[in-house]
Amino acid sequence: MKIKHYLLIVLTLLLISSCSSTRKLLIKKGDYLGWKMTNYELYGSKKEFERTLNENYHLYSGYGLTMIMYQEIEGPNFMKMKIEIYKTKDRPGAQGLYKRYQSFTKIPIGENGSESPGFVAFHRDNYFVKIIAVRNLQDKNNYLKNVAQIIDSKISR
Fold first, then answer.
1. pLDDT averaged over the chain?
2. Selecting from 1.20.1300.10, 3.40.1000.70, 3.40.50.300, 2.30.30.230, what CATH number does the domain 2-156 have?
3. Which are the contacts of 9, defined by CB distance < 8 A and separation ≥ 6?
4. Domain residue spans of the chain
C-alpha cells in the first residue's frame, strides 16, 4: 500500500512539473501588451490527441507527440490568433511536423520558420509551433511573427 501511495505522489509531481514547464510557453498578459488569453487547452495522452486532432490524427501520430497545447489570444480591435504548440519526443519529430510548411516564405524564427498570409510556423528543439490568424488579422503577419518570436525565446531558455 505504501508503494502505491508513493508512486502516486511521484507521478503527480512529474505531471505538475511537466505542466508548469509547458505553461511557460503560453503568451501571458505582460508578454504582448494589449493582448489577453481567451482560451487554453493542454493534451498529453494518445486518446486526447486522437479526439482533438480528429481526422488529422494520422498526419501527426507518427512524430512521437508527447503534448499538444492550444491557446487563443485576443488583442485590440477584436484581433484574434490561435497558437498551437506540439511537443515531440525528439527534434526529428518536430522537424517532421514542420516539413509540410517549409515551402512557404522563409522567416528567421526558430531553427526553421516560414509564413504565408495569416499563418506562421516554426520548429525549435522538439517543439513545432503554428500561429494562425483567426479574426481581424488579415495582412497583419507582423503580429503573428511577434508572437512566434516570443514563444521561440521561451523555448530557447
1. 84
2. 3.40.1000.70
3. none
4. 2-156
Contact (Cβ atoms closer than 8 angstroms) between residue 108 and residue 55: no
SS (H, E, C) 6-68: HHHHHHHHHHHHHHHHHHCCCCCCCCCCCCEEEEEEEECCHHHHHHHHHHHHHHHHHHCEEEE
Q: Return the pLDDT at 17.
A: 43
pLDDT digits (tens, 9 = 90+) for 30-71: 677 788 888 999 999 999 999 999 999 988 889 999 999 999
Global pTM reads 0.83
Tell which residue, 107, 103, 105, 151, has the closest CA to residue 129: 151
